[in-house]
Amino acid sequence: MSAESRKSTDGFSEEERAAMKERAAELKKEANRGRGNKAAAEELDVLSKIAEMEGLHPEVWTS
Fold first, then answer.
1. How far is the C-alpha of 47 from the C-alpha of 40, rounded, in Å?
2. Is pLDDT at 38 greater than 70 in this prediction?
3. What is the C-alpha separation between 49 and 55, in angstroms, rounded?
4. Closest Cα to residue 25, out of 8, 39, 43, 45?
5. Is 61 helix (H, G, I), strand (E, B) or coil?
6. Domain ranges in the chain?
7. Does the predicted TM-score (pTM) go above 0.70?
């Protein structure tokens, strides 16, 4: 971790704050989803996260 990512005025690094924001967005998305097809929605979330990863070809995560 670089010195820049550890700097903070609130006690949290920029990386930690980004992770908290991402988790908050995930929780909000879950809350807005309702009682629909939860398994399908979760599968789409997982596939979208995998797609965000660098260096991974779609053939690997769709099979």
1. 11
2. yes
3. 13
4. 45
5. helix
6. 3-62
7. no
Burial of residue 21 (number of CB atoms within 10 Å: 0-12, 13-18, 19+): exposed
Instruction: Give residues with Cβ within 8 angstroms of 45, minimum separation 6.
Output: 26, 29
* Cα-based distances in Å from 7 to 3, 16, 21, 27, 61: 6, 11, 17, 27, 36
d(CA 19, CA 25): 10
pLDDT band at 7 (very low <50, low <70, confident <90, very high): low
Mean pLDDT of the chain: 76
